[in-house]
## 1
Amino acid sequence: MADALPTEETIREALRQVDDPEVHINIVDLGLVYAIAVDAGKVRVTMTMTTPACPVGPFLTEQVEQVVRALVPEDTQVAVDLVWDPPWTPDMMSEMAKIGLGWSV
């Protein structure tokens, strides 16, 4: 457990541990993480799924919360907001994710 709040970039890098179990690519490279806000005593991750009907949504949001909680002091508020606007599109994926899925870049 950390004593100070991590930076947005540290959190983003840690979230690369969270893979979408359907495509086996991390949620950052898939473009599912829209924003990370680090403020006094609070971390908020805003993310989406590839579709509102995504069956692994609850699993992924729980994984995100666990990864963030491992980085922050115990009394830090951690929120994971699941949003649908803007809707996810394949264009949001990193080049690495596109290559991993066999999509030409």
Note: The chain is about 25% helix and 20% strand.
## 2
Amino acid sequence: MTEDYGEEVYNLLSKIVGLKFKSQINGSGIRLEKLFEMKNLVTGEEFFCLKTNKRAIEFNSPKEC
């Protein structure tokens, strides 16, 4: 049985960051649960929020760095 690491979220995430890491995440116990595109309504700053294993990671698009 193949572990579900969140392939749909992985595919979107790898497009955004430009990295392929499927072999490292598959079987690691890490589950990519949700991916959000966020905007701070006060500052106008846009960023992404990745939910994984009940934790959240915020990051900017590599194009904005």
Note: The longest strand covers residues 32-39.
## 3
Amino acid sequence: MEWLVFFIGPMGKEKPAKGSTKGVDYTMHLPKLHTFLVDYLKQDHGYQETKNKYFTLTEGRRVGSITLVKSKKKGKDSITILTPFDLYGAGDIPSNVFDAIDDADLVIADLSGNKPAVIYELAFTHALGIETILVGAAEVVSFYLAQSKFINVDFRPKTISSDELRNSFASWLKNRNKLFESENPLQRFYGAPLPDISAAIGLAAGFYDNFARPILTSGEIIHRTQTELTRPLQGLIVLRPKNLASRVEEIREELEKRLLAEFPGEVQYGAPDKLFIRTNEGARMPFFLVRDYLIDIPRTMFSLALSPRLERANRNQTLKSSMEGILIGRFFVGVKQNLKKDRNIKERLFHFGSVAEIPAIIKTGESDTWS
């Protein structure tokens, strides 16, 4: 697995305050943090530095970095640490910094001096749901960060020494993931990173209101042959895809193949005026019916593939795959939130699962949807 760490913080000298002859020099803050982290990974965790001295950001800029690796049972663990000074110079500085933040799995923020530019960058980091470690000198913390964990670091010595910083990074190493759901003020307020919440949750609300809710409140199976047969619906199973890259038709074929193998002679297909789900709000057409379970592939969810942030990640397949998983997860969280709010819905009738999981749901009538 590949991980990226980036630093933000003040990087120059502060002019003396009025009536004073001495300003504050922040020049060595980030280099000291950078050295501290590299030494910590080498000495405490056995990582080894590679010959690779550059990292290519998603937008294509090549910047200085240090990459450390460590072999594990599941493969090689790689941590790249960006050198923030290389982002400054020619070009669009805000875009370079935003690009590095957006690529990062962890941002270490030096809040010394409460600089507006650093607070702005930190807010951007929080909005994306990226994990952060907040450090600084003994100064007043911004109001919005008063409830956040803050590590007081003394930058005056030649090298940093901080057990608290070491422990915080150790905690990140142990618990790190690609979910982008860090605990921060914006995350607490919205419950999800800002780029994810509007698109995924919005599509989930539409899917629930237009499809899932009518089926789960008043849906019944109508099978018209020579006479009309009516049967109660046992439940709604929504397929959860592995990613957003496959076409709906490809997924439908994969699911059909699995269902035919598991339930020979029992797979039925929705057909207008012949086999459909009648609801108080009109007919709803299933992809498949098996043992009176309606199985659906949520077409609307696949428009998440057009997410600007996801398109930006096209150059990095690992990052893109991770983000696709996040967006898919947000969609189903949104559907579940709507179900839980609706007292007319029996939660036990709703399930979701992968192609491999759906047969077991049909056989047992149970899933870990609500776990």
Note: The CA atoms of residues 209 and 304 lie 18 Å apart.
## 4
Amino acid sequence: MAKKIQLRYIEDPGHGWAEVPTTLAKALGIGTDFTYRNDMLYLEEDCEMRELEKALTSLGYDWSYAGCYVDDFDAWLEGSEWPEIPKEE
């Protein structure tokens, strides 16, 4: 039976990132040298997410993403609203 996991996918107008707990990254063996804040890593969509997805698949995870949008990823990551995603008005 596959292990189910849903990760948050955060995007801004120019890019997207998968949000991954550091403990999961270590368990998957993908390392932790990525953009981070506290105990969460942010893997960029063009390269790093592929490594994540390959590791999840090879270890038998049934994975999916819950999409979230922010106006500016860097401002959100470094701002006071992190880790919450601002609600659209």
Note: The chain has a mean pLDDT of 91.
